[in-house]
Amino acid sequence: MVHASSRPMRIAIPNWQGRISPVFDVAENIMLVDMSGNRVDLCQELVLPATDPYERAQLLHTLRTEILICCTLSRPHQMALVSAGIRVIQHICGQVEEVLEAITNGRFPGSLLMPGCRDRSKSEHLNLFLKSAHCKRSERRPKRKGEENRDV
Predict the structure, then answer these.
(1) Are 99 and 69 a contacting pair, CB within 8 Å?
(2) What CA–CA distance (Å, rounded) separates 115 from 92?
(3) Can you list the alpha helix ranges (DSSP code H) found in the chain?
(4) CATH architecture, range 4-138
């Protein structure tokens, strides 16, 4: 029996000079990261050609992105991504490599949260999310149109 969770989890991180882009809406580059458990399987960088919220969401959906980790984004972009079935984790800042390390370790230190968002509950929430993302991916997201049934 093959489960959807055996497929790598794809995370998108807007990237500007090695750091998480300050605002997703105007980010020009995105790093796609495939994770299997606590291991990075693939890391590639792409140019984001569109700035329209729904075009960006459709592109990330087509690329099979499950999670977007960003610093901040506008409400229209957030709504477009959520409508496309992509989970958004915002208020994360810092070096992309530090964020990848936090994901693989399953612990988000408060130093990766934007100033003003560094309360303990936010960090604890992210840590719980990371644990559930590694363990319960197939339960979190319904299959997208065109995805094969891997639970059979």
Answers:
(1) yes
(2) 10
(3) 53-62, 75-83, 96-105, 120-135, 137-140
(4) 2-Layer Sandwich (3.30)
pLDDT at 142: 46
- Radius of gyration of the chain, Cα coordinates, nearest whole angstrom: 15
Phi, psi of 87 (to 5 degrees): -80, 140
Tokens 């299959």, located at residue: 143
Q: What gap in Å lies between CA 51 and CA 80, rounded to an integer? A: 12
CB 99 within 8 A of CB 106: no
pTM of the predicted structure, to 2 decimals = 0.75
Provide long-range contacts, Cβ within 8 A and 24+ apart, for 59-62: 60/12, 60/30, 60/84, 60/86, 61/85, 61/86, 61/144
User: Is pLDDT of 19 > 80?
Assistant: yes
Residues 35 and 47: their CA atoms lie apart, in Å, by: 21
Instruction: Sketch the domain layout of the chain as residue ranges.
Output: 4-138
Which pLDDT tens digit goes with each residue over 85-139?
999 988 888 899 988 888 888 777 777 777 766 555 555 555 555 555 554 444 4
